[in-house]
Amino acid sequence: VAAGGGDGAGGGYGHLLDEFKHFLQDNIGNLDKETTYQLIMNHGRMDVMLYYAELNSDYDRLISHHVQRREWTKALDVLAKTSDPELFYRHSPIMMQHAPLGTTNAWINASKANPTLLDPRKLIPALVRYDSSNNPPGHKANQAIRYLQHCIKNLGCTDSVVLKYLASLYAKQPDEQSLIGFLEEHGGSGGGALDLDYCMRLCTAEGKREARVRIFTLTGRCEQAVDAALELGDVELAKANADAAQDSEELRKRLWLKIAKHAIAEEGDVRQAIAFIEESDVVKIEDILPFFPDFTLIDDFKDSICKSLEDYHRHIEDLTRGMEEATKSSELIRRDMAELRGRFGFVRAGQRCGFCRGPAMATSLYLFPCNHTFHATCLFQWTTKHYLSEGDAQRAKQLHAQVEGGGGGGERQQLELDDIIAQECPVCGQPAIDLIAEPLPAYGGGEKDWDIQQGGMLGR
Known about the structure:
Residues 353-428 form the RING-type domain. It comes from Hemiselmis tepida. This is RING-type domain-containing protein. There is one protein chain. The chain is mainly alpha-helical. The protein has a domain at 360-455. It is 61% helix and 1% strand. Strands 1-2 form a two-stranded antiparallel ribbon. The longest helix has 40 residues, at 302-341. The protein is elongated, with a radius of gyration of 46 Å.
């Protein structure tokens, strides 16, 4: 069946063409593809070649044929039939360049049918060739942004390369709000996958000053955020970032002073600077007075000065009351100490040592305010062995040896020893509480260890 053959009598040409197509269909499994394609093309039968390619699901050949003839709609129709991702990656660059809306629709529809079919990262070369001027009339939306938004919002894509490329597309848009929203959603403190340092370079290169402020905020660089906001002239944004520095009152004060200085020096707005004092709880009138011009009417900030003086007056009164209370407390303490020096107690003749149970009066002893009595030697041995820290125990032993040796300064050494071993009663004071966590001695050391009368109350 040669190209250009007439219909002939009785439509013989059409009959032969149909018969040939049936032949191809019936013998498709037995024909060598390349040889068959070559024979068909040698006869110039393009329609038959397309039919044979359709029979073989040879979508690559079909798409290439339509692309060569700039038949974008037909190429997209064929692309919609395939489930081979490589065909999308191979043909999308040129199709995105010339038919962006249809190509984007094909990608989105393919991902709806199979969310894992296409890798957005591998389609970036096609997105790079996108030119919005090739959008059909009435379609102003950026198709590259549209597809990447679909991948992120509907497919859950978190690929850092995809996020970076979408950020670069947003940075080229005249309106910064989409970029700012994207930064807040994917670059926040929740561990977003977006590289904010890369975005900062983008915003600097594209002159997106408000977005730069937002990046400083997201990364916790409050001071840089305030500086950038003031450079932008957005005082409200600067104040919001100044208040974000809650961890450091000193930093908050420094940032608020920057804002006040900007209001006075750059805008000459004295009343606004005064208003900052009421908004901030860290800046006072005396902090911003150095920023005012030498010749400024006091009427502009008379109320603030009066309020500051009243605050100082209240603060001085509070300090005075605190000093009076401290004086009273010190007097009470001195009186208690004086009374303590003259305090005494009685030791009964039959009273015994709380440790060894021997007669308390047999040797030097310690009498606690709770009336528990201990031999000095018993208390020394018990505290150095069971209660004192290693350093205190070592010091107590040194003092005890010096006191027993009768060297000079014995009274001072005795007082220091008393302070170490007799701070509290071992029966009802802190030592007894601390011993609650101590394990009982293992059984087997002899019944004498468990003899209350023999070993005393705390003997071990």
